[in-house]
Amino acid sequence: MRVLNWSFLVVVCLGLLLPSVSHAEQKKTLGQWDVHYIVLDTTFLTPEIAKANQIVRSKYNALVNISVLDKDTQEAQNLSVTGSARNLLGSKIDLNFKKVVDGKAIYYLAVLSHDHRETFRFEVTVQQGNKQEVLKFQEELYVN
After folding, report:
1. Domains in the chain, ordered, with CATH?
2. Any idea where the DUF4426 domain is (predicted)?
3. Rounded to an integer, what distance in angstroms lies between the CA atom of residue 137 and that of residue 85?
């Protein structure tokens, strides 16, 4: 578990506003949770933030960011996050999520290497005790 300053959140939020980012923040309600997810280019992270979180900045790396909130209270949830990404040829890549705590916010981050215009189908499992939900989404990634 790593503790970050608020600048990480600012970088991620700024990434949402930039038109060259291929995707905006998205949310799905799964059971009692609101699961927020975004996939963005690691080059949008500052070198300092990337280094502090052991993330390699590269135009060929995407950052998968998952945040899970209680649907009613909107409080960040401390849980287990696992997942994989499968390209259109069926090659499966396991995602190794790291938990990052920034104040009251909790993020689960994984890095995914990709080629230009490569499409991935993501399957992310969030689990807390005996409660488990699966998030499925698809993203096309670009090399900037």
Report:
1. 2-141 (2.60.40.3340)
2. 28-143
3. 10
